[in-house]
Amino acid sequence: MIRCVKAAFRTSKADLDRLFACNRVSAEIWNQYLSIAKNYSLQHNGSWIGKTELQTALKNQFPLHSQSVQAVCHKYLFARDSAKQAKNQGVNTKYPHKNKKHFNTKWVDKSFKIEGNTIQLSLGIQNGKRQQPIQIIVADLPDAEIKEIELVYDRKLMVSMIYDDGKIAALNDGSEVAGVDLGEIHSIAATTTANKSIIITGRKARSIHRFRNKKLAELQKLMSKCKKGSRQWKKYNRAKTYMLSKSERQLKDIIHKTTKQFVQWCTQNDVKEVVIGKVEGVQRNTKKKKRKNVTQKLSNWSFGKIEKQLGYKLEEHGTSVKTIDESYTSQQCPCCGRRKKTSTRNYKCSCSYKEHRDIHGSKGILSKYLHGDIRYLGETKSIKYLRIA
Ligand SMILES: [Zn+2]
């Protein structure tokens, strides 16, 4: 199965500068493709430039590897086709048109070489000479055949790698669909179409989160009192980095355990399809905005991790994973349609509907996915409780 992983790398100062330059050149290529496509369309009564014509348009003009140049072209074509598809389905979207300053550079096929933990990224010809490849060292390379390497920026330059792990998805002859409500602190609640439910809670995750936030606030306060870059400031900064990476490791381990338990439950309950409710980025509470932003980021981080881990593990079992917008699924009563917020363990409505808060949420997501609205799906038949230590 095809996987994707993002990793940090080490390199020399000179090569790091060249990597940044690669993404600037890729942006320049992107911008040129945009203008070529635009001009073509203007000269041909609005018809689109063809794939081959676009591909040959920028051959041998940039210092990047020819396949890295092609990759930008493919991304452009992909963006154009996706926009067309979306438009056909009635979605209000725009064709690619924005000029960029940075664009992820991609190395595919023969444009990179791997030996041990060292990757050589090939470049193109400049002033009639093939340039020296860029060398990077990636500590945790996946033990598999790497197909693509993309240079991405996530607070620093990192590599995103696509590889084949050689595994084949198992056959799944289940028939149930499960709605999943991901809780704030690494908890999962789910209900199947057969009305079987599970609640997995993570007490330890909660305490790690709390400790992490408390420590982070303390260190940031201390750092704000020192001169940026001073010896004392650096000391606090190191402590911050250490604390963050340690808690991240602990949380990763909990996410692994939680998702593993969930996948087991899915198999036991003949689940063929899983739908996860996704919080759309709504910003509330401007008063405590600053503090909210920190917690928001953390929960986005864990949501992404849990979602990704679930995807990997479920796909191995032949279970498909989808996400839907979870708006109102936790607030709306499925019997009478009233909306309210619940701060207690149980959701209770004045119409006499009552349900465990998280199970209520998972059923709302399931209903929204199956029927497009929030309906009553019947009484919960069983609830399995699990606690990840
Ligand atoms: Zn009600």
Question: Sheet bearing the most strands, described?
Answer: 6 strands, mixed
Structural class: alpha+beta
Count of helices? 7
CATH architecture identity of the largest domain: 2-Layer Sandwich
Mean pLDDT: 89
CATH topology of the largest domain: Nucleotidyltransferase, domain 5
Oligomeric state of the chains present here: single chain
- What is the strand arrangement across the widest sheet? 14-13-10-11-12-17
Describe the protein's topology.
Elements: E1 2-7, H1 13-43, H2 51-57, H3 66-88, E2 105-108, E3 112-115, E4 118-121, E5 125-126, E6 129-130, E7 134-137, E8 145-153, E9 157-164, E10 176-182, E11 188-192, E12 196-202, H4 203-225, H5 231-268, E13 271-278, H6 289-316, E14 320-325, E15 346-348, E16 354-356, H7 357-371, E17 382-388
Parallel strand pairs: 10-13, 12-17, 13-14
Antiparallel strand pairs: 1-9, 2-8, 3-4, 4-7, 5-6, 8-9, 10-11, 11-12, 15-16
The chain binds zinc ion.
Key words describing this protein structure:
389 residues, 4-stranded antiparallel beta sheet, alpha+beta, Nucleotidyltransferase, domain 5, 23% strand, single chain, 2 domains, globular, binds zinc ion, 6-stranded mixed beta sheet
Could you characterize the architecture of this molecule?
It is a single chain. The protein has 389 residues and is α+β, with helices and mostly antiparallel strands. It folds into 2 domains: 163 residues, no CATH class; 168 residues, 2-Layer Sandwich (Nucleotidyltransferase, domain 5), CATH 3.30.420. 42% of the residues lie in helices and 23% in strands. The protein has 7 helices and 17 strands. The strands form 5 sheets. A 6-stranded mixed beta sheet has the order 14-13-10-11-12-17. A 4-stranded antiparallel beta sheet has the order 1-9-8-2. Strand 8 and strand 9 form a beta hairpin. About 4% of the residues have low confidence. The protein binds zinc ion. The site of zinc ion (ZN) has 7 residues, from loops. Zinc ion (ZN) binds next to loops.
